[in-house]
Write a structure and sequence with these properties.
The protein has helices at 13-24, 55-63, 77-86, 93-99, 102-111, 159-163, 221-237, 272-275, 280-288, 311-316, and strands at residues 5-9, 28-33, 46-49, 67-70, 119-122, 137-141, 151-154, 171-175, 179-191, 194-197, 201-206, 209-215, 242-251, 256-262, 302-308, 325-329, 340-347. By secondary structure, it is of the alpha+beta class. The longest helix has 17 residues, at 221-237. Residues 247, 260 line the site of magnesium ion.
């Protein structure tokens, strides 16, 4: 079998887990990251440190790999596009460009007749005056947000005065959904109508950051099926290759909405490492490298807890975990408040 070297842009926990799974499949990995201390360098065959617009470093990276994928979506489109001229980038750069922009992403989803929360583009402060209809809402930057960063809850127009928002960048105002629950679907698309799709995962956020995930999700059959159908429709429409996550809201009347799409492996899918024969990470590597598609099988129900900031310290000191507990330390150099430092999955 010919040897494949997979390039991964981004060296955080998702890059680490991709590299770990690739190794098991005999695939070499090269990580490219702008953070000198990127934890994924502990797990890959080669590490290249450089900014995401540093042409020389990018070339050094490309020369070492056969194809390129990425662990996060906030990579300049130009960078992915230039790389794609020399080595295949999967998922395609155009897919990433669409999804990294909250407005383009929501327009795309709505065109498929899939429900999203109501939203409107905001380019200047006065755009907000006429929008009482969208309140209470959340103002979000159209690009570069994650873990609730770049988001401002707005209950009344007066809230804006105290917020000091920088209107040199674009925003989207979303109507607040009265949430009953949040779920996500992780799907890996291999090629036309060839998928592995995990069952819906129920997610709990604290301060807009994912805290807990579990399977099975406590949802009715209609939502179970609709969430899977919508994720398949989105993946097919994008002609996506690799693992994709669709995040959903369920409101108090059991209406399902797509919240956002992540063109990558996702935190809510960490439990697939222990709860399934094949994880979201292995499936991503299999799909982008053109390896065999193997049907997924559930091994166990599971719950996952993210360890944020100094919560990791307690777990680092535990000598022995129970047989059904799996602790992951992302080996991040600095412990920062609200930073994802590790997680623990329990099979139940
Ligand atoms: P991020 O890119 O930071 O993950 P999200 O848009 O997914 O941004 O928002 C993070 C979390 O904030 C969501 O999972 C949800 O808990 C809450 N949230 C965001 N938008 C809304 C909304 N329109 N209505 C209700 N809750 C929301
Ligand atoms: Mg989100």
């Amino acid at each position: 079998m010919s040897e494949i070297t997979l390039g991964i842009i981004g060296g955080g926990q998702l890059g680490s887990m991709l590299a770990i799974e690739a190794k098991k499949l005999n695939i070499k990995t090269v990580i490219f990251c702008d953070d000198m201390d990127a934890p994924a360098q502990n797990f890959c065959n080669h590490f290249v440190n450089g900014n995401y617009d540093d042409k020389e470093k990018i070339l050094e990276f490309i020369n070492k790999v056969d194809l390129v994928t990425y662990e996060f979506e906030n990579i300049p489109f130009e960078t992915l596009n230039e790389i794609n001229k020399l080595k295949p980038v999967l998922p395609k750069p155009s897919v990433n460009r669409l999804i990294q922009h909250r407005l383009a992403e929501k327009d795309f989803v709505n065109k498929l007749n899939i429900r999203t929360t109501r939203y409107v583009s905001i380019e200047k402060k006065s755009d907000l005056d006429a929008l009482v209809d969208f309140l209470p809402g959340i103002l979000k930057t159209t690009t570069l947000g994650y873990d609730g960063k770049g988001q401002y809850p707005i209950n009344s127009i007066n809230d804006l005065d105290s917020l000091n928002i920088d209107f040199s960048q674009g925003y989207i105002l979303e109507k607040l959904v009265k949430l009953k629950k949040e779920i996500s679907i992780i799907i890996t698309r291999f090629s036309n109508n060839k998928y592995e799709i995990y069952e819906p995962i129920e997610n709990t956020h604290e301060d807009q950051i994912l805290k807990y995930s579990k399977i099975p999700a406590e949802i009715n059959e209609k939502i179970f099926n609709q969430s899977k159908d919508w994720a398949m429709l989105i993946a097919e429409e994008l002609k996506y290759v690799g693992t994709l996550c669709v995040e959903f809201f369920i409101d108090r009347n059991d209406n399902l909405y797509v919240n956002e799409i992540a063109p990558r492996v996702h935190n809510s899918g960490h439990l697939t490492i222990n709860a399934f024969n094949i994880s979201q990470f292995e499936n991503h590597v299999r799909a982008v490298c053109g390896l065999e598609q193997i049907p997924i099988k559930k091994i166990s129900n599971a719950k996952m807890m993210n360890l944020l900031g100094d919560q990791i310290i307690h777990y680092r000191n535990i000598q022995k975990f129970n047989d059904n507990e799996f602790f992951f330390d992302y080996l991040k150099k600095d412990v920062k408040e609200k930073r994802k430092m590790g997680h623990i999955t329990t099979l139940v």
